[in-house]
Specification:
Shape: globular
Structural class: alpha+beta
Distance between the termini: 55 Å
Order of helices and strands: HEEEEEHEHEHE
């Protein structure tokens, strides 16, 4: 019995450390975007850890097909990431899901596929703050570059993302 308790005490620091990253930031298990609030929430076990202001597609409502300039609504995954020449860091959202595919099939139009969570462009004519004052994307979810850097470092590939109206 004594050996069990010694082993448990030795393992306790490992389990505590394994549940956080190197910056002691809690691991994020869900990203929640509330379009009506223009807000992205990083979640852990149902609690909001941090929130950010976002910009969305130029048109309101749920995405129906490729090119409609709307941001999707539903359950997806962050499934890969890359640096972007146009928008700094970007993380791909697994749009379309089965519901989206059915809707686009009924419409007879392609659903689209390159929905990203990304930063803002470096633009000599418009400063970064300008982009966060309006919805300007083609259907993606955009954050300031500093905010995107934080999301990039705390959200791992395979994380659930829910996009609500």
């Amino acid at each position: 019995m004594r050996v069990f308790f010694v082993a448990l005490l030795c393992a306790l620091p490992f389990f505590t450390y394994a549940n956080t990253d190197n910056n002691s930031t809690p691991l994020i298990d869900k990203v929640l975007v509330v379009k009506s609030e223009r807000t992205l929430h990083l979640m852990r076990r149902g609690e909001v850890v941090k929130s950010y202001r976002v910009s969305l597609g130029k048109k309101s409502g749920p995405k129906e097909h490729e090119g409609d300039q709307r941001t999707p609504e539903g359950l997806y995954w962050i499934n890969w990431r890359k640096t972007s020449d146009n928008f700094n860091l970007s993380m791909h959202i697994s749009y379309p899901n089965a519901k989206d595919l059915k809707r686009s099939e009924e419409l007879g139009l392609p659903p689209g596929s390159m929905i990203m969570l990304h930063g803002t462009p470096d633009d000599e004519e418009y400063p970064e703050w300008f982009f966060s004052t309006l919805d300007w994307t083609e259907g993606c979810i955009a954050l300031t570059n500093n905010d995107m850097q934080e999301v990039w470092s705390t959200v791992k590939d395979g994380t659930l993302i829910e996009i609500r109206p």
